[in-house]
Amino acid sequence: MTDLAALRREYSRAGLSEADLAPSWHDQLDRWLGDAAPVREFNAMVVSTVSSDGRPSSRNVLLKGADARGLVFFTNLGSRKASEALGQSWVSLCLPWVELERQVCVEGTVSEVSREESQAYWASRPRGSQLGAWASRQSAVVTREELDARMAAVEERFPSAVPLPEFWGGLRVAPVSVEFWQGRASRLHDRLRYRLSGKDWVVERLSP
Ligand SMILES: Cc1cc2nc3c(=O)[nH]c(=O)nc-3n(C[C@H](O)[C@H](O)[C@H](O)COP(=O)(O)O)c2cc1C
Question: Minimal CA–CA distance to 31: which of 145, 192, 185, 153?
Fold first, then answer.
């Protein structure tokens, strides 16, 4: 068994001070996304949702847009994550750039993006991904044989253009809190958080 307890690494690549921060959380996120571009799947983020009886679950999705309105990802709207996100309104997101000794953690409320926005993104997807979305009843129990049969059926059903399914679209997370974490020596990491207070964003440093 790997000796996990013995694994130890000092974080020393960089620091993050209040003076370094961009004026808004989304400008700061944009900066860090730029730095993270060499990291494989740097737009992957963990989205955590909670069920109506308080049971949390997490999974990766791909960040597909971010601006002052929030962070957008696309998914099956009947999936576990979408039902829980829309049902409870709140989710958390985490972009884990461990190679850069960084993470960005977000808490916010969820809403569906407009159908026009989902349509525009859908149109940019390869045919295979579009057919896959039609074939998958995401989060439901299935056999591989059923899944392959469903794929064959949708390939036949849509010989040319594949329309946007009504059960598929984008979710936007409007943050109330965005924390930028930079690893530092001796575990005295920098944690700077933009927090929505009324209509204003305040920046606070959190103890590591
Ligand atoms: C790197 C990575 C990126 C992923 N991106 C997405 C995504 O953008 N949308 C999505 O629905 N699922 C994505 N998935 C699959 C999800 O993690 C998850 O398995 C799926 O959405 C079903 O989740 P649910 O049953 O909890 O709703 C991704 C998985 C990985 C590992």
Answer: 192
Q: Is 74 in the pocket of ligand 1 (CB under 6 A)?
A: yes
Sign of CA dihedral 115, 116, 119, 121: negative
Q: Ligand 1 in contact with 51 (CB < 6 A)?
A: no
Residue 137, ligand 1, Cβ within 6 A: no
> Angle formed by the axes of helices 144-157 and 127-135, to 10°?
120
Residue with token string 């005295």:
188
Q: Which residues of the chain have pLDDT under 70?
A: none
Q: Is the CB of 138 under 6 A from ligand 1?
A: yes
Distance 73 CA to ligand 1 centre (A): 10
pLDDT score for 51: 98
CB 204 within 8 A of CB 196: no
Question: Where do the structural domains in the chain lie, given as residue ranges?
Answer: 8-122+167-205
- Which atom from ligand 1 is nearest to the alpha carbon of 44? 1
Counting runs of H as helices and runs of E as strands, what totals does the chain give? 5, 9
The CATH number fitting domain 8-122+167-205, selected from 1.10.3380.10, 2.30.110.10, 3.40.50.850, 3.30.2130.10? 2.30.110.10
| Residue owning tokens 């737009």 | 43
pTM: 0.97
Active site residue: 8, 9, 55, 187, which one? 187
Half-sphere exposure in the Cβ direction for 100 (13 Å, CA): 21
